UniProtKB/TrEMBL annotation:
InterPro entries: SAC3/GANP/THP3_conserved (IPR005062)
Chain ranges passing through the membrane: none
Residues annotated as domain SAC3/GANP/THP3 conserved: 1-186
Source organism (scientific name): Perkinsus marinus (strain ATCC 50983 / TXsc)
Pfam family, one: SAC3_GANP
The protein's name: SAC3/GANP/THP3 conserved domain-containing protein
Amino acid sequence: YQRSSADKVYSASDIRTEQACYDSMMYLLENVLDFDINPKAGYHPNCQLATYFDIYSFLRDRGELIGTRAVRVDMHVQNLVHSHVFTDIHEWCLRFEILSIFRLWGRNFGEGADRKFNWQLSLNSIAQTVDPLTLSYVVQNDDREADAKTVTKEAAIHRYIILILLCNGDTTRVLFYIDKLAKQQPKVFGHPNVR
């Protein structure tokens, strides 16, 4: 597979539509994510032996084809930050990375460095997910008045972000993030899930 570079030019015919991005993510979440504990019929026999590490690698590293990163890139290229699909996909990607940290932390999956969970790569992926996600919250809240369900959902995500920052040991960044959240989204900041 080919990894995307920052200066790559994307052809319109190579970019999935918003609906195709949503459908791709739903396929990954419903058919691939739990394959290690819930194998599905109709897949190659080698797939039936997949560990969660194999699934994580597949979902994260499929480059230009189908992985979570590729779907996020398609959303970014189209600047769909106002879209609820954009927000949902980034929330799913963040939760996927958190689940993967929980399931893979400190475990080896065979010989070689490529069979070991890489905390730093996971943090990089989280950062690439969190920044556009929090921007979409701000933009969408400017577009409309946030209802109670939206505030609760956003508060849960912000709590995850604060916990990740705390785990990384960067207290200054945590305080900066909390201050920024209080100023930009006071309703979310005041929610019990964040306080």
